[in-house]
Amino acid sequence: MKVDRLVSIIMILLDKKRIGAQELADMFEVSLRTIYRDIDAINMAGIPVRGAPGVGGGFEIMEGYKIDKKVFSAADLSALLMGLASLSNMVRGDELVHALAKVKSFIPADRAKEIELKVNQICIDLSPWMGKSDIQPYLEKIKAAMQESKLLSFDYIAHHGNKTVRSVEPYQLVLKSSHWYLQGYCHARNDFRLFRLSRMSNLQMQDEIFTPRDYEKPFIGFAEILETMQTEIKIRIHKSVMDRVLDFCTYEHFSPDGDAYYIVSFPFIENEYYYNILMSFGDKCECLEPLHIREEMKRRVHDIAALYEN
Q1: Per-residue confidence at 295, pLDDT binned at 50, 70, 90?
Q2: Are 173 and 91 in contact (CB under 8 A)?
Q3: Which H or E run contains 27?
Q4: Domains of the chain (ranges plus CATH)?
Q5: What are the residue boundaries of the HTH deoR-type domain, all occurrences included (predicted)?
Q6: Which residue has the higher pLDDT, 303 or 136?
């Protein structure tokens, strides 16, 4: 049960006179059963929410009720503040500022120092060490286009460096493995596509308004699909690149090979991305098996050497 969803439901109930269960379920993309469980949890926390049956019915907080600031624990408030603060560093907006202010209003004066200490124990910084300086304005422009249901147009560098012009209905911003993506319906492909923001340029919000379509989250089941595609290869690495290899697998995959080397069972998919990972380790990595991947690595090394010989 997500604390941030419970707090959001409480805020909505405080702000609105009444709201239906289905509207809440659609808003948070969960089932009706989950919403009913959330309402039960809110009631158990001491906030009296009642259901009004019939047409125009729904959930509402009993009239005249004033929320007790002690309903949230220090851990609850700390978690909410950490999440909102980390998100507001990347995606700015009045609603996030207001949400932060509302959550802070729940902090009793006698617990302020305790909660501040807990919040400062964990720092979540989603901004990259290096990268495009225009990612932030792109995030804000995409967010505005989603809120207003307006088309986006941009130039996009696809696979193998192909540059295309896209017109896209924006639906969702996705942060995955430190990279931002836009999920949208591409008019050029007549289908949903995932676009990496770092490959975009000349992003513009159009005046044309679109009617939203039904869509699924882009990474549902992705981990399972990726797992079926992966195989393990055997590589020999120098200890100087060990920290980088650990970004892709755990220490349990390492076996010492003398004082300065390790044999590693490395997760691998036969595509450009994974071959480029191996190439990035330079002469500190040797692919031992399977043989056909070792031969492909040899071919790529020869191609690079030939480039410099010419």
Answers
A1: very high
A2: yes
A3: helix 21-28
A4: 3-67 (1.10.10.10), 74-120 (no CATH), 135-209 (2.30.30), 225-309 (no CATH)
A5: 2-57
A6: 303
